[in-house]
Design a protein that fits this description.
By secondary structure, this protein is mainly alpha-helical. The chain has one domain. Helix content is 79%, strand content 0%. It is built from three helices and no strands.
């Protein structure tokens, strides 16, 4: 599987978790150790 596809699938999973979780963007990123900037870029 191409690396870009794997990265996209991981981001899709993260975004789905965020939408179901009820946390703010900042809280979600802090708990998942994800850059807020990268998260917002993908959102």
């Amino acid at each position: 599987m191409p690396r870009a596809l794997v990265v996209d699938l991981r981001w899709n999973a993260r975004l789905n978790d965020f939408r179901r979780g009820g946390l703010t963007q900042a809280e979600f990123c802090r708990l998942r150790d994800v850059s807020l900037h990268s998260f917002r870029k993908r959102l």
